[in-house]
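Human: We require from you a protein record containing the residue sequence and its fold in token form, and nothing else.

Assistant:
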Amino acid sequence: MPQFTDDDVERYARHLVLAEIGGPGQQKLAAARVLIVGAGGVGGPAALYLAAAGVGTITLVDPDTVALSNLQRQILFTGDDIGRPKVEAGADRLTALNPGVCIEPVAEPLSADNARALIAGHDVVLDGTDDFQTRFTVNAACVAEGVPLVSGALGRWSGQVGVFAGRPCYQCLVPEIPPDAETCARVGVVGALAGVVGAMAALETIKLITGAGEPLTGRLMLYEALSATARTVRITADPDCPVCSGSH
């Protein structure tokens, strides 16, 4: 297990006094490897909190560059980053926040060809992408590699976070790509909602790594910002799921 310096003890003091984390939990965080797919509205805030929490290695996967329209909600970046690859700008920001964390930038799309290789060796995958095909690809690779998946999504004023560890999987929740799938670019999204969902996704990741509390495994938290209400629903395993029905 990683050994803490005096600076580490001061940096993580608020974790170390938490009964559910403490020294053993902080060591688990320091030894953990988390893959974040999509360094945007959800992945960016999640990455900031995971780096601040002392997750040892964070792999950022995103092929895009920073655009002006991102800055309304993607707080990982500043105006000076416009035009830079998101993973490079994000790596700089995260390293500045916590130099003790190793950031591995991957400036390419996650696809069926590379998903399993990228995911292998990680303890948790956090998916903050905004297209269903990538979500399906990430989910299938996580099931194949036996890596838990934290999924965050949002649009307009609504957000959701779920944790999938084997069965049920994400495709039990969404069996097929919706024909009228909405994107934030088309329907809009209030910027602060991305921070809410990203922070919740980071929190679930921290719980999975440290063993604290009850993660949202097999459950989905739905947050409605306009009414300031939230509810949690249980996800039912699909007996005919093409991804996970034969894996157990």
Remarks:
- The chain has ten helices and eight strands.
- Residues 191-210 form the longest helix (20 residues).
- The domain at 32-234 is CATH 3.40.50.720 (Rossmann fold).
